[in-house]
Amino acid sequence: MSAAPALLDVRGLHAGYGAVEVLRGIDLQVGEGEAVALLGSNGAGKSTLNNVMSGLYAPWAGQVGFDGADITGAHYRDVVKAGLIQVPEGRRIFPNLTVMENLELGAFTRARERRAANIDKAFELFPRLRERSRQLAGTLSGGEQQMLAIGRGLMAQPRLLILDEPSLGLSPLLVEELFTLIRRLRDGGLAVLLVEQNVGQSLEVVDRAYVMENGAIRFAGLPSQLLGTDALRRAYLGM
């Protein structure tokens, strides 16, 4: 019996800016309901890869497949409609809109008819957002803004949620809460691509991991395999 096709299937992806190549032949897959970590230091090319997959940048070569369709170079709105949703690094909420307005915008392109039900789900996941629903998003704490960014992403009922450096700038307690949430999302059947520098906690909540360095994938396998490889820990993870 053959394995089911990957929900996200990236093959031979090359991309860059001007004459500078950033991605050098990336192969990466995420299965239905699977949590996968993409690890690497700053400058490895992780965010560029996210933005190409999300339709924000056009690739030079290669293919991005999603749910059996070729979405290479598709407009980002069409990528969102397909159910591939990115929560970008730095949160990028709308500071002059309320928490509720930010959440409602998350359903603008996809799942608009289920907006009210999905707001209730977001408030169940993040009770603090319910308490602050009429508050301007720019007045929230950093942790609350990250909750809002993830809640806004979930409003679109993603098939795959890309989380780009979600723990960046959070306190240790909030980081613990964040990774507990990621585990809950995975256990609930949502496919997650977790793009992180927080290696230890990422590997505790994912099924597989990739390590990226200088625009190329240097490792792909199980978390236990990665942690058991001294050379990889030293060379790519600083552990």
From TrEMBL:
Pfam families: ABC_tran. GO terms for biological process: L-amino acid transport. Residues 8-239 form the ABC transporter domain. InterPro entries: AAA+_ATPase, ABC_transporter-like_ATP-bd, ABC_transporter-like_CS, BCAA_Transport_ATP-bd_LivF, P-loop_NTPase. GO terms for molecular function: ATP binding; ATP hydrolysis activity; branched-chain amino acid transmembrane transporter activity. CDD domains: ABC_TM1139_LivF_branched (cd03224). It comes from the Bacteria. The keyword Cell membrane applies. Keywords: Amino-acid transport, ATP-binding, Cell membrane, Membrane, Nucleotide-binding, Transport. Belongs to the ABC transporter superfamily. This is ABC transporter ATP-binding protein.
